[in-house]
Design a protein that fits this description.
This protein has 11 helices and no strands. It is mostly helical.
Length: 245
C-alpha cells in the first residue's frame, strides 16, 4: 500500500463543497443519514484502536465501538459540529473521550450480541491494533496514527475500485508501487514487458496514476474539514502522523 502521497495545496478549495461532517449534521434527512453511515463505515478503525489502548479487552472494545457509532447515528448528534464546521477527526476524538468517561461512570458491562451498527472484521481490527502497538503510545497517538492510515487505505481502495471498474485491475496492481516515494524509474521497461506496454506508455500511466492519487487524497481530506485553512492543517497533520508511525 502506498505510504507517501504528495497532494498539491495550491489548487483552490471549492467553497461550495460541503464536508461530510457538515452534511451529516444536517438533520433528519436521507442525505444526513447516508453521510453518518459513511462516517461510521470509514472511520471505525481509529476509534477501536483508541478504545483498546485505553485498557479495554477485544470484546469490550468491539461493543464500545458499536455503541459509540450507534450514538453517532442518533438524530442531531453532529448538529453542533456542523454549525461550527470543525474537523471530523477532532470531533470524533473528543466525543469518544466523553463517551468512555460516561461509560466508566455507569460501570456496567455491555451486553454482547445484536444491534451492530457496522459490520467489521474483528480479527482485522485486532491485528491492526497489535501491529501498531508500542509501549510508549498513548490512546491519542494510536488514534492519530490509525486515522491517517485509515484515510490512506480509503484512497488506495477507491483507486483500486476505479481501475477494476475499467477492467485494469492487473495494471493497478503492477503500477501501485510507483506511488511510493523514490520508486525506481528504472523499472519502467521491466513493468512494460509485464503489461505489454512500451516504456513510454508506462511512464504516462504512472504519471496519470499519481495525479489521480493526489486528487482522491485531496478529496478525502476535504470531506473531513470545512475550509482551506483546515484543509492545509489536516494535510500537515496527516504527514506528521505517518512520519511518527
Amino acid at each position: 500500500m502506498p505510504s507517501d502521497p504528495e497532494p498539491s495545496l495550491h489548487q483552490p478549495f471549492p467553497q461550495t463543497r460541503w464536508s461530510i461532517v457538515v452534511e451529516a449534521g444536517g438533520g433528519a434527512t436521507p442525505e444526513s443519514r447516508r453521510a453518518l453511515e459513511e462516517i461510521c463505515r470509514s472511520y471505525w478503525p481509529p476509534l477501536y484502536a483508541y478504545i483498546r489502548r485505553s485498557g479495554f479487552g477485544r470484546e469490550d472494545a468491539e461493543d464500545l465501538t458499536q455503541e459509540f457509532l450507534a450514538r453517532l447515528l442518533e438524530r442531531d448528534t453532529l448538529a453542533g459540529v456542523a454549525e461550527e464546521k470543525g474537523k471530523l477527526r477532532s470531533f470524533l476524538l473528543v466525543s469518544l473521550k466523553r463517551f468512555l468517561i460516561d461509560f466508566r461512570k455507569r460501570q456496567r458491562a455491555l451486553k454482547r450480541g445484536g444491534g451492530k451498527v457496522v459490520s467489521f472484521d474483528r480479527e482485522e481490527a485486532e491485528m491492526a491494533y497489535q501491529a501498531e502497538l508500542a509501549e510508549r503510545e498513548t490512546p491519542e497517538t494510536l488514534f492519530v496514527k490509525r486515522w491517517a492510515q485509515t484515510l490512506l487505505e480509503s484512497v488506495f481502495d477507491e483507486l483500486a475500485a476505479e481501475f477494476d471498474g475499467a477492467g485494469k485491475g492487473e495494471q493497478f496492481d503492477v503500477l501501485c508501487p510507483f506511488l511510493q516515494r523514490n520508486s525506481g524509474a528504472g523499472r519502467y521497461a521491466e513493468v512494460g514487458e509485464r503489461l505489454g506496454m512500451s516504456e513510454g506508455a508506462v511512464k504516462v500511466a504512472v504519471h496519470r496514476l499519481r495525479k489521480r492519487y493526489r486528487e482522491v487524497f485531496r478529496l478525502r481530506v476535504m470531506e473531513t474539514v470545512a475550509d482551506e485553512r483546515e484543509f492545509e492543517e489536516e494535510v500537515a497533520f496527516f504527514f506528521d502522523a505517518l512520519e511518527a508511525g
